[in-house]
Amino acid sequence: MKRPAPTAVPIHELLQHRWSPRAFSDKAVTPELLHALFEAARWAPSSSNYQPWAYIVGTKDQPDDFAKVLSTLVEFNAGWAKHAPVLVMSVAQTKLPKDGSTNPHAFHDVGSATAQLTFEANARGLLVHQMAGFDVNKAREMFAIPDGWEPVAVMAIGYPGDPQTLPEKLRERELAPRSRKPLSEFVMAGAWGHTPSFASK
């Protein structure tokens, strides 16, 4: 299933076709593909090249690992994410290893790495749905995440599935038209709230 974004101007088709499904196929993601996704994340940019990211992976062929990641999700997300073949939790190193001070850019850098993972996935026919709805404290305890590290998000990864397999309300959301804020609401120049001419079109 494809759901291209109705962009105001043409963008790269890889970006235009990125979206976050809830219906996933049960087709397995091979270890070779997973290796490529995390290799893409590995080469993301980061402040001072600290690379403050870690990923906890659960796959259907390792059911105990999969169940542990799934158990951290809120009930709503767990209801559909349990059908994805891969669940991954991103974790940010919020304390700098050199002196223990706070790294204010850690979440940004984890997001950058996860974006690269996502686009590598899309290029290979996979889709990714990122979720904020999970229990951070349970995750920290479940995986013995050390001090100085903070769980960020959980993502479901897999091949697109059939939206008709979803409950009605989720199916409606899956098929609803896609939309985003216009550039004029978030692109500024010179002063806060001032929209540059290229973004006001």
Write the layout of secondary structure elements.
Blueprint: H1 13-16, H2 31-42, E1 53-59, H3 63-71, H4 75-81, E2 86-93, H5 106-123, E3 127-131, H6 136-142, E4 149-158, H7 168-175
Antiparallel strand pairs: 1-2, 2-4, 3-4
Describe it:
- The chain has a four-stranded antiparallel sheet, sandwiched between helices.
- 26% of the residues are buried.
- The chain has helices spanning 13-16, 31-42, 63-71, 75-81, 106-123, 136-142, 168-175; strands spanning 53-59, 86-93, 127-131, 149-158.
- The radius of gyration is 18 Å and the shape is globular.
- The protein contains seven helices and four strands, in the order ααβααβαβαβα.
- The two termini are 31 Å apart.
- The mean pLDDT is 96.
- It is α+β, with helices and mostly antiparallel strands.
Structure described in brief:
Helix content is 32%, strand content 15%. The chain is an alpha+beta fold and 201 residues long. The protein has a four-stranded antiparallel beta sheet with strand order 1-2-4-3, sandwiched between helices.
